[in-house]
Amino acid sequence: MSGFFQSLRLKCAAFFVRKMANRAQRSGYALELPTQRQLIEIPTRDANRKIRVWAYPPPGWERSLKRPVMINWHGSGFTVGGFGLDHVWCTEAAYDVGIWVIDADYRKAPEHPFPAAVHDAEDVLRWVSTRPDLFDLDRVAVSGFASGATLALVAASTLRRASHGLNIRVPVAFYPITNCDVDPVHKNPPHRQRFTPLPVNTIRFFNDCYVPNQDDRHDPRASPDLGDLESFPDYVVFITAEFDIFAEEGAALADNLRNGRRTVVNYMVQGENHGFDKGVIRGESENRRAAAYAIAIDSLENALQATPLLFPQAPRHAGDAERLRALLESGYRGGDQHLVNRWIYLSRA
Question: Which InterPro entries does the entry link to (predicted)?
């Protein structure tokens, strides 16, 4: 019965935490940049469940369909909402690099604890692999913020080894959590400031919701720095923040990944904290976000060897929205359609 009451306690607490988070995030859902994006649902391994994704097309997508692709996952502590908050990053990546961006949702704890979010991330990778007509499967990137950055690192290491026909060339991890097995009381930011958005007790609560089984916290799908470092690609990007409690573990993983052949970008944003790029106001914070995004964009171009599609007159919201939706939802009708059907059958078995 103790497990039942613990689960009930976490669910009740999550309800109130989500209420507060939704109130704080409300302004972040207002689009700062005009863009064309389509909300669609994609299949999962469960026959009666789908995953929501925002699909951001590259500029001029109607003239050049097949382009590199990046899958992004939002931050949430694996517990609260956040789907759609990364629209500035997704828009800039799609427009400036000239790639498709798939901004994916995932199930949240404590209702859906580990490894539910990882399974959803894997299902998104599999769906991308079924659309060789749209996506260049040899040039794939992943990105994420906070817990979403953890998923991106897992996708670029443990899930990458499983190979779904995708060549994941680079993860871009913004202020990631790389090891949930370490008690947050032992995690210290490079420099402290008076206000911290993530107190120790809050982080413990998120960990208890997402990974209630202590043994699972050793799993590299929950703590990517405990996995095989050789499974990471030859280009890795970390964006951390000076006052963030997770900055040191992100920097430590970046250092451990340096092996003489791998390009590791580790950029620390000075004077900022966890979630520094969300809800920014004009001024220095906006400049710092712009600088961090510029470094990430440059790294994407290098890792994907992408040539931006230069349509300077094309506004970011241009295009036939209905045609875009139909294109994304139609499914691939090429010669290997049987492989698509086979994956859908196996994933539901």
Answer: AB_hydrolase_3, AB_hydrolase_fold, Carboxylest/Gibb_receptor
